[in-house]
Structure formats: C-alpha cells, structure tokens
Amino acid sequence: MSPASDDKTPASEDLTAETGTQDAAGAESAWADEVGAAEGGAAEGGAAGDVASAQEGAAKKAPAKKAPAKADKADDDKAEADKAEADKAEADKAKSDKAKSDKAKADKTRAEAAKAAKAKADARASARAEQAKSAAKAVRDSAELPAGIFDAQVNIPLIHQVVVAQQAAARQGTHAVKTRGDVRGGGRKPYRQKGTGRARQGSTRAPQFAGGGIVHGPVPRSYVQKTPKKMKVAALRGALSDRARHGFVKVVSHFTEGEVPRTQDALAVLTAAAGNVTAGRELLVVAERKDQVTWKSLRNVAGVHLIDPGQLNTYDVLVSEQVVFTESALASFVARTGSVSQHGAGQHGAGQEGDEQ
Asked: Hey, which CATH number is domain 147-170+226-355, 3.40.1370.10, 3.40.1190.10, 3.40.50.2300, 3.30.1850.10?
C-alpha cells in the first residue's frame, strides 16, 4: 500500500461513517413514517369499521320498520279484491234482473201478439162464415132448370160428331211442303244422259234425292165440317142434360155484391155452388159479357173457364166437371136456344129440335 492511500484512509472512513449515520437516520425516519402510516391506516380502518357496523345495524332495523308497510299493502289488495268481487256480483245481479225483465217483456209481447192473432183469426173466421152464408144464399136450386133443355135425350154418336167437327174447325190448316218445283236449285242436268252406267237423271231436286222435293205432302186446306144447326143444338142439350142428371149444373144469383170486382167473394160463391176450386178441376162459368164484375173477379182463377151464353158449346160442357150459370146468363141462354115446354121435352127431344134456333 502506498503512502497516499494511507493518507486518505481516515477521511474515507469518516465519510463512510457519516454515510452510515445518514442511512441509519433515513431508515429510522422511514420506519417512523411507516409506523405513522400504519397508525393512520388503523385509525381510518377503525372509522370505516364503525360506519360498516352502523350500516349493518340500520339494515337490521330496516326490515322491522318495513314489515308494517307490506302488511298494509296486503290488506289494501285484499280490500280491492273484495270490492272487485262485490262489483262483479252486483253487475251479475243487474244483468240477471235485466234478462228477467227482458224475458217478461218478451213474454208479454208474445202473449199480446198471440191474442191479437187469435182475435184476427176469429174475425177472419167470422168473416168467412158470413161470406159462406151469403154465398149459400146466392146459390139457387137446380130444380128451376127448364126440362126441355136440361132433361133432353142424350145421343152419344151425335155428340161425338159435333165435337169432332168443332175440334176440326179449330185447326189452322196452314201446313205445307215444297215439291220439286219449289225447292231451290237443281236446274242443271247432273250428268249426261248416256255412257255413265247410271240411271238417267234430269235434276238433283227430284224426290229420290236428299234435299229434293216432297211428293204427296200436306197442302194448306180447311178442315171445317159443315154441321147442321139442329145437330149442334141437340148435342148441346144432350151434354147439358147429362150434367144436370148427375147434379153438375148449378145456378147462382150473383158472384159478387156491388160494382167492385172481388175474387175472394166470387170464389166463395163458386165454392158453395160447385165445391172447392183447385187447379186440377175444370169449372165452366156461364156469365154474360156485360157482367164485367163477374168476369173481372174470375178471369184469373186457375181451373175456371168463363164463357158467354152465346158461345156455350158441347165441347166446353164435356171437358168441365161442373157448369155454373148466373141467373141472367141462364135466362139469356134459354131465350137464345128457344123456349120449350118444361114437360114432354125429355120424351120427344129430337122431335122438337125443328122449333129451336
């Protein structure tokens, strides 16, 4: 070791000692700071612990304070439920009372309607009874029929001849066909006369060709058969006599009262005289054309055929089940066919036909 190093050694030692002393002091100061910090932290931790314990205590006391609030809410809910149930029961009761009231009103209304309907039906039945009584009064006894017309001899072959002539006269007779001269076309000879091996033809409108003319076909003509007037009168008398012997000829004074047409009243009289009027039956009503009230009352009734006394014929009498005369129509018919004695006309019948027009 050199002397210089030896000279420096005490100073270095002093510096080292001084540095150690400073380090010790710094360590002591740091320790003190740590202790102080520890104490401060302990103090803060104690304060925080007190706050936490206070909060825990408050938390433990809080349920005890809120328990009464929950109980009150449950009571309120129960009260509201009871009120809602009471309101519902009251509403159901009101609804039931209203239903009972409506039912009572409906029953009352139905009873009143039934009573009114019964009264209306009774009034209608009474009106029908009065109508039937009035209709019955309008029917006259068939014994008033003249025997010369309604008790004559019945000649069936004569009646058949007259009816056939009447039906034939009703035919139009406008039927017609085209002959070979009427059919259009066929003016040219279809092929030459010889050399074809076929039959000679002069026109394609000959009867043997399709589309050709018709031979011996119907032509327009009249089917009227001349029937003597006496034969017509005798046939009509025979038909009326046959109906009268079976009680199928009736006489009524009128069909309606007043000047206003009434189908209902006319049908009541017709029913009283000839029975029920249905579509399947054919009833012949003889009324004068000037009796417009009767014609307008019965002209649209199904199964009823109206005819004027001057147009009465054998065919209409035969196709009808019953014949109903009005008094004025019967008088007109008797005057038209000729007045004969009520006695002896049935025995002589055809012998007195020469006096009838």
From this structure: 3.40.1370.10
